[in-house]
Write a structure and sequence with these properties.
The protein is of the alpha+beta class and about 725 residues long. About 25% of the residues lie in helices and about 30% in strands. The strands form eight sheets. Strands 15, 16, 17, 18, 19, 20, 25, 28, 31 and 32 form a ten-stranded antiparallel β-sheet that branches. It is globular and about 85 Å long.
C-alpha cells in the first residue's frame, strides 16, 4: 500500500523585506493573476494564500475586475485566505495586537465567504504559547507551524494537540520549489523524511517565498505519481488534511523556540532596537489607555481605533518589526508609527475633552485632580500632570511652548498665534485611589524621602550606590552589581555573532541632575552614554533612562546585572501570561563558532515582552525585548548595530537566511533613547509595577466643585487585566 500524501499549492508572501511593498506588490499581481487563471482552467483544485488577507487586499486595489472570481473560488473552497490580517511575529507584539490581527483578518475573510480557518504560522521565527491562546480565544481549533520545533519535544509525531488546538508541524518546512523546476529527483527521499514523523497521511506544501503557482499542477502530479514507489500524492488543501488525520498526542512544550531542527534567527529581538522601543510604547498606549478609556466611558471611537490597528499591524507583517529588511522598508515602518502616534494622541485629547464637557469640568486645578487609574495597582502615589499653568505642591519636570488642549475641544474657536503658551509637565503626590476606577484625588503636600549625592540615590525601599567605580543596587536585604558592556558583532539582522571579549564601560563622572521634593535624578556619564537614575519618594523600583550617542558600527551594548548565584531559571512575560525557562548557564556560544552546515548554533538569548525575573530580581523594559544569560549574569540588550540583512560569513549560522544586502541604517547611528527599571521580588510584583512604570493612568485637570468617583471594573484578587478586545476584558489569572 502506498502512503497517502496531501499536497497543497501555496506561496509564502512577505509584504516587504529585501524589496519594498510596492515592488513586491507588482510581483504579486503577476503571481496571483496566474493563480486565478489556473483555478479558472481547473488545472489545480485549490490554492492556499499564506494565512493572511492583506496580500489579497493589496492585489484587489489594482485588480478590482477580478473580485468576483476571487469570491467564487473562496466560496467554492478552491481558494483559502485568513485568519490573520498579516502574517505576524508572535514574540514582539502584545496579546491585544494578536487578537486584533485575528479580529480584522477574520472579519475581512468572512466578507469573502471564508469560514474555516487554520492558524497558519509557517515561517515566523518561533511560536509562542500566546499565539495558540489567541487562536483559542477566537475559536480556531487548527494550527500549522514550522520553526522552533524539537522533534523530541512532540515525541517525534508531527500531529499533536497544543492548548486544545490540533497542530501540525511542517517537518520539511513550507519552502518546496523543486517541482517548479521539473526536478522530481529525490522527492521519494524527501517524503521519507516527512513520513518519519508522520502517521498516514502526510502533508506536503508545494511553493515558496514570492513564487508563482505550479502550472498544470493536476497533470504534473499525475506524472509524478507514476514514478513514486511508496507514496500517492493527492492535490488538496491543508483543511482536508486536518479532516483526515489523527491528533492524539497531547504532549507539547510551552513554546516552540528550539533551533536544533530549524533556524529561529533570534537576533531579530534586538535588530533596529529603536523601532521596538517605539512599538512597545504605542502598543501600551493603545491597549492599556485608549481602548479601556474608550470602552469604559462609552465613547464612539471604535472605528478610529480599528483604523489605527490596521496601520499598526502592517508593521508586524513578517520581517517588519523583526528589523531584518532593507532601510527603505524600515523608513516606511517609521512613517506608520508616526501616523499611529498622532492618531492615538488625537483620540486621547478628545476622550478627555468629552469627559470634561460631560461633567462640566473647567477652570484651573487647585488642590484636586481627576485620575483614571487604568492600572492593575491600587493607590498610585505619584502622577505626571501636563497643564498650561503651575499647580501648587507639584515638582516641575519640564516645559515647552504649545496650545492648551482645551482650545482644541471647542469647534467654534480657532487657535491663533496668540494662543501659544507655556505647557508645564509636573509631578504630584496624590491621595488614595483604586485600580480601574476614576477618582477625584487630593494633591498632597509632599514630604521629601529621597536622599541623593553625586555617588548615591536612595529612599526607604531601594538604593543605588557607586563604590570604586562600580555600581551597586540593594533593597537592604540583597545586593547586586550593575554594569554596561560592549562587544563586537560580526553577525547580521538575524543572528548576533560575538567577537572578542566583552568590554566593561567605565564611569567617567556623575552628577546630581535633579534634587526635587518628589523626584531625584542622578546622571552617570560613560563615553557617548548618559544614564539617568530616577527615584521618587514612594518608588519600590529604580527607573533608568539611557541616552546613547552611537558612533560605533557592528557592536552590541548590554546592561548587565551580576547576581550572587548562577542563573538556572528565568521567568519572563509572554504576550499573555508567563514563560518559565530552564537555562544552561555555562553555555558559551563563542566556544562552538563557526557553526557547521546546516545548523544554527544554540545560544542563551531569549525574548520577553516587558520583563524578565531571575534570582528574585526583575528587569522591566519598554521595547528592550532581548535578554541573555551567562553564569550569574543577566544581560539586557540596549543596542545592537549591524550593517546587513544576512551575512554569508556569519559564524553562528551556517546557511544564509536572506540576501547579503547592506542596510547602513541598521547601524543605529546617532541618538538612541531607552528606558528600563529594576525591582526586587517575584514576577507578580513586576506585573503590578509595570503599569506604574508605563504610566497607565490619565489625569483630567480642571476645577472640581464636586468629587467624581466611580468604579470602572471590579478586578478579582490575583488577576491582571491586559486590555479590552471586542468589548471584552482580557484577564490573566496568576
Amino acid at each position: 500500500m502506498k502512503k497517502l500524501v496531501y499536497a497543497y499549492l501555496h506561496t509564502h508572501w512577505d509584504r516587504e523585506w529585501y524589496r519594498d511593498k510596492e515592488d513586491f506588490n507588482l510581483r504579486f499581481l503577476d503571481v496571483f493573476d496566474i493563480v486565478l487563471d489556473e483555478l479558472k482552467k481547473e488545472n489545480a483544485p485549490f490554492f492556499y494564500l499564506d494565512g493572511q488577507v492583506i496580500a489579497l487586499l493589496d492585489y484587489l486595489k489594482f485588480r478590482k475586475e477580478r473580485l468576483q472570481e476571487v469570491l467564487y473560488f473562496i466560496k467554492n473552497k478552491k481558494l483559502a485566505i485568513g485568519p490573520y490580517f498579516v502574517s505576524a511575529d508572535s514574540y514582539l507584539i502584545n496579546f491585544c495586537s494578536m487578537l486584533k490581527n485575528l479580529d480584522i483578518g477574520m472579519k475581512i475573510s468572512s466578507e469573502f465567504f471564508q469560514k474555516d480557518f487554520i492558524g497558519y504560522m509557517s515561517d515566523i521565527f518561533g511560536v509562542s504559547n500566546s499565539a495558540f491562546l489567541a487562536l483559542k480565544e477566537k475559536n480556531i481549533d487548527k494550527a500549522l507551524i514550522w520553526r522552533g520545533v524539537n522533534p523530541k519535544s512532540i515525541k517525534n509525531n508531527c500531529n499533536f494537540i497544543k492548548n486544545d488546538i490540533k497542530t501540525t508541524w511542517l517537518v520539511q518546512g513550507y519552502f518546496n520549489d523543486f517541482l517548479h523546476n521539473g526536478n522530481i529527483e529525490g522527492l521519494e527521499k524527501y517524503l521519507d523524511k516527512i513520513a518519519k514523523y508522520s502517521n498516514s497521511p502526510l502533508l506536503l506544501p508545494i511553493g515558496a517565498d514570492h513564487l508563482g503557482m505550479l502550472k498544470n499542477a493536476n497533470e504534473t502530479i499525475k506524472e509524478i505519481n507514476k514514478k513514486l514507489k511508496n507514496y500517492m500524492i493527492i492535490l488538496s488543501s491543508p483543511l482536508e488534511y486536518f479532516s483526515n488525520s489523527k491528533f492524539e498526542n497531547k504532549n507539547a512544550p510551552d513554546e516552540f523556540l528550539d533551533n536544533s531542527d530549524t533556524y529561529i534567527l533570534n537576533g531579530v529581538y534586538s535588530a533596529r532596537i529603536y523601532q521596538k522601543i517605539k512599538n512597545a510604547n504605542i502598543q501600551n498606549n493603545l491597549s492599556k489607555i485608549i481602548e479601556p478609556l474608550n470602552f469604559y466611558t462609552e465613547q464612539k471611537y471604535d472605528k478610529n481605533i480599528e483604523n489605527i490597528y490596521k496601520t499598526l499591524l502592517k508593521n508586524y507583517a513578517h520581517d517588519g518589526i523583526y528589523g531584518c529588511s532593507i532601510d527603505s522598508v524600515h523608513r516606511a515602518i517609521d512613517a506608520r508609527f508616526e501616523k499611529t502616534e498622532n492618531a492615538i494622541s488625537a483620540i486621547l485629547k478628545n476622550l478627555i475633552g468629552d469627559f470634561k464637557k460631560k461633567n462640566n469640568i473647567n477652570g484651573k486645578t487647585k488642590d484636586k485632580i481627576g485620575l483614571f487609574n487604568l492600572s492593575n495597582k491600587n493607590n498610585i502615589k505619584t502622577i505626571e500632570i501636563t497643564s498650561p499653568y503651575r499647580i501648587a505642591n507639584t515638582q516641575l519636570i519640564s516645559k515647552k511652548r504649545g496650545f492648551c488642549d482645551d482650545l482644541l475641544y471647542d469647534i467654534y474657536k480657532i487657535p491663533v498665534t496668540e494662543d501659544i503658551t507655556t505647557i508645564y509637565t509636573q509631578i504630584a503626590e496624590i491621595s488614595n485611589n483604586e485600580k480601574y476606577s476614576f477618582n477625584t484625588v487630593k494633591i498632597k503636600k509632599p514630604e521629601k524621602l529621597v536622599t541623593i549625592t553625586p555617588k548615591s540615590i536612595e529612599n526607604k525601599k531601594i538604593k543605588l550606590e557607586i563604590k570604586n567605580n562600580k555600581i551597586f543596587i540593594t533593597d537592604f536585604k540583597q545586593t547586586f552589581e550593575l554594569k554596561l558592556t560592549d562587544i563586537k558583532d560580526e553577525g547580521d539582522s538575524y543572528n548576533f555573532a560575538p567577537k572578542g571579549k566583552y568590554q566593561k564601560l567605565e564611569i567617567l563622572k556623575t552628577k546630581v541632575k535633579y534634587d526635587g521634593i518628589i523626584r531625584c535624578t542622578l546622571t552617570l556619564y560613560f563615553k557617548d552614554i548618559e544614564l539617568d537614575v530616577i527615584l521618587d519618594n514612594h518608588y519600590e523600583y529604580l527607573k533608568f533612562k539611557t541616552k546613547i550617542k552611537n558612533k560605533k558600527k557592528n557592536h552590541k551594548l548590554q546592561l548587565v546585572l551580576v547576581l550572587d548565584d548562577n542563573i538556572s531559571k528565568t521567568i519572563s512575560d509572554d504576550a499573555y501570561g508567563i514563560i518559565k525557562r530552564n537555562i544552561d548557564f555555562n553555555y558559551n556560544i563563542q566556544k562552538y563558532m563557526p557553526a557547521k552546515r546546516p545548523f544554527e548554533l544554540k545560544n542563551n538569548i531569549f525574548p520577553m515582552q516587558n520583563f524578565v525575573n531571575a534570582n528574585n530580581v526583575t528587569v522591566m523594559t519598554k521595547g528592550l525585548n532581548e535578554y541573555e544569560i551567562y553564569k550569574n549574569e543577566l544581560r539586557i540588550c540596549l543596542l545592537r548595530a549591524i550593517d546587513t540583512i544576512s551575512n554569508p560569513k556569519n559564524k553562528v549560522r551556517a546557511i544564509p537566511a536572506g540576501p547579503d544586502l547592506k542596510c547602513p541604517e541598521a547601524q543605529c547611528m546617532g541618538l538612541i533613547e531607552a528606558e528600563f527599571a529594576l525591582i526586587f521580588g517575584n514576577y507578580k510584583k513586576a506585573y503590578k509595577t509595570l503599569d506604574e512604570f508605563y504610566k497607565n493612568y490619565v489625569t483630567v485637570e480642571g476645577n472640581y466643585k464636586e468629587n467624581i468617583n466611580f468604579k470602572l471594573d471590579e478586578i478579582p484578587e490575583n488577576t491582571f487585566i491586559y486590555g479590552i478586545n471586542e468589548g471584552r476584558k482580557i484577564i490573566y489569572k496568576f
